[in-house]
Amino acid sequence: MVPPAECCRGVVPAGARSIDEILAAARARLRRLEPEEAHLAVRAGAVLVDIRPAAQRAATGAVPGALIVERNVLEWRFDPRSTSRLPIADRYDLPVIVLCHEGYTSSLAAAALHDLGLHRATDVIGGFVAWHRVGLPAFGPTALLAPSSRTVAPETTRRAFT
């Protein structure tokens, strides 16, 4: 990795923040959950949203019952005012738990949901890696998850919204 003092040419623009600063600010707004806490919250009715790209889910595995909404459309699918929202996203008090691979992107995504007014949104500390490490329900990677010409698609075993 390049040391911060050596990575930039010229003057840093006024107001610019590093990704570490942006991530810290996002996480300061969240009550992040350990994987076990997230699992219990889902069992109590929270919505677990896996924002990882399809290729990453195919390569590493997935959580049964997780709602698949890739990161690039998350805000449109969960904004209660959006015409592109999911049917489940019809209220601001919806408990949403965002899951990514290691818990970085999910923090930024959960903060974006907060910006939309979904103040119960949070993420899983350590992401899918931590979820899998503690032995919570997961499947794959399997041939079923890998792209193929077979007629059985991953979306037949879980809900996917892109």
Features of this protein?
single chain, 162 residues, alpha/beta, Oxidized Rhodanese, domain 1, 5-stranded parallel β-sheet, 7 helices, 5 strands, 33% helix, 9% strand, globular
Task: Describe this protein's structure.
The protein has 162 residues and is of the alpha/beta class. It has one domain (18-161): 3-Layer(aba) Sandwich (Oxidized Rhodanese, domain 1). Helix content is 33%, strand content 9%. It has 7 helices and 5 strands; from the N terminus they run αααβαβαβαβαβ. Strands 4-3-1-2-5 form a 5-stranded parallel beta sheet. Strand 3 (96-99), helix 6 and strand 4 form a beta-alpha-beta unit. The two termini are 33 Å apart. Mean pLDDT is 88; it is low at 143-158.
Please tell me what the overall shape is.
globular
CATH homology superfamily name: Rhodanese-like domain
Mean pLDDT: 88
CATH class: Alpha Beta
Oligomer: single chain
What proportion of the residues form beta strands (DSSP E)? 5-15%
Q: What's the total helix number?
A: 7
Could you describe the largest sheet, including whether it forms a barrel? 5 strands, parallel
CATH third-level topology? Oxidized Rhodanese, domain 1
Report the helical percentage. Answer: 25-40%
| Strands in their spatial order, largest beta sheet | 4-3-1-2-5
**From the coordinates shown, what is the CATH architecture?**
3-Layer(aba) Sandwich
Low-confidence stretches: 143-158
Distance between the termini: 33 Å
Helix/strand order, N-terminal first: HHHEHEHEHEHE
